[in-house]
Amino acid sequence: MPDSMTMSRNGMVSKIQTRIRTDAFKNNYDLVGKELGRGKFAVVKKCVEKSTGKEHAAKFLRKRRKGQDCRVDIINEIAILESAAGNPFVVSLHEAYETASEIILVLECAAGGEIFNQCVADNDEAFTEKDVIRLAKQILTGVAGLHRNNVVHLDLKPQNVLLTRAHPLGDIRIVDFGLSRRMDSMEEVREILGTPEYVAPEVLNYEPISTATDMWSIGVLIYVMLTGVSPFLGDEKQETFLNISQVNVDYSQDVFEGVSSLAVDFIKSLLVKNPRKRATAEECLKHPWLNGHSNPLPHLHNALRSSLDEPENSPSESEPELESPAPSPELVIVTSYTTCSGQSEMKSVRGAFAFDEPFAARSEIKQELIC
Ligand code: ADP
Ligand code: MG
C-alpha cells in the first residue's frame, strides 16, 4: 500500500516501481497491423518485442492535453497497474517508455478486442447468457481484487473490458486505469468523471464516490451484455442523467426476452440508487445467477440502442491527432466530492442537488474535456 508520501490528496499515486525507459521504443519493438483501439487521449497499437518475438499492445499517451501537463495522471495509471500486477483479470504492464511528448505503456495484448463488439453484435455473434455468466464472474473477480486493494476503476464500460480471444471466446482483461483512484483515506478530490451512460447517481449528485460507484457501472455493463440495450441512454445527455438519477430502468420482457429472471434480479441488486444498498463485488460473486442456480437460455439480441452507435473508439484509418484529438463523446464533470474507503463507510459532505432540474443542475457543473 502506498504511504502518505506517495499519495496525493485526490487519491492519485505518484510513486512507481517501473523504470520509465528513455531509449527509443522503436529500437525494441516493431509496430504491426492496424491499431487495436483508441480512446480520449491514447491510441493503442499492436507491437512485437524484437528480442522475444512476443506480441504486446503499446498504449501511446500524450503528456500534454488541452494545454496542461498530464504526466501525473499517466504516472497514476502506471501505479495502479503495478498495484494490480497479481490480478488475473487486469491487463499486465510490461514496460514503459517516455519521449518528449508521450509516455508509451507496453501492455499485455488482449487480442480478442472489446466486449463492446459482442454487445453491439446481432444474433449469432452476440453473447449467450451462459457466456455472460462466465465473463461476469471474471469481471467481478477482477474488480473485487481491485476493491480489496482500495482501488476504484471509475470507468468500467464495454470499451474498457477486453477479451484475450474473440473466437472461441477467451477471458476478460480490464484495461484503462486513466480515471482510477486509490481510496485508502477519505480525501477531498477535485475531479472527473467518465462516460455518461455508465456514471452512477452519486457522481451526478456530488455525493461521495466509493467502490460502490464501480458496482453501478457493472450493473449497466451486464445489462448491456445481456440485452444489447444501454439502460439509461437518452437522446440527450441531460435525459441520460435524468434517467440515471431516477433509476429509470426497463426490466420488461421485451428487453429481457430469453434472459433468466435470476439475471434480472442480479442487475437489480446493482442498479440501486443508494450506494450503501448496492451489492458489493464479493456479494455479487455469491449471487445464485453466477452459481449454477439459473437455467439460462441462449438469447439473441438486437442492435444496440446506445451511444455505442458512436463509440469512443470509432474505427478510423487515419492516424490519431495526438496533439488535438477529435472531440470525444465523453463528458467530464469537474466537481468536488469526497472519496471514502468502503461502501459501508460513506459520509456525504455536500448536499445533493435536486435532479428534477437537470438543466439548471448542469449549469452548475463545469463541463470540460478531461485533462
Ligand atoms: P483511453 O484511456 O484513451 O480510453 P484505453 O486504455 O481504454 O485508452 O485504450 C483505448 C482502446 O484501445 C481500448 O478501448 C481497446 O479497444 C484498446 N486497447 C487498450 N488496451 C489494450 C490491450 N492491452 N490490448 C488490446 N487492445 C487494447
Ligand atoms: Mg478507454
Automatic annotation (TrEMBL):
Residues 313-328 have a biased composition (Low complexity). Keywords: Apoptosis, ATP-binding, Kinase, Nucleotide-binding, Nucleus, Phosphoprotein, Serine/threonine-protein kinase, Transferase. Its main location: nucleus. This is Serine/threonine-protein kinase 17A. GO terms for molecular function: ATP binding; protein serine/threonine kinase activity. Signal peptide: none annotated. It catalyses: L-seryl-[protein] + ATP = O-phospho-L-seryl-[protein] + ADP + H(+); L-threonyl-[protein] + ATP = O-phospho-L-threonyl-[protein] + ADP + H(+). PANTHER family: SERINE/THREONINE-PROTEIN KINASE 17, SERINE_THREONINE KINASE 17A-LIKE. Residues 30-290 form the Protein kinase domain. The keyword Phosphoprotein applies. Gene3D superfamilies: Phosphorylase Kinase, domain 1, Transferase(Phosphotransferase) domain 1. Its EC number is 2.7.11.1.
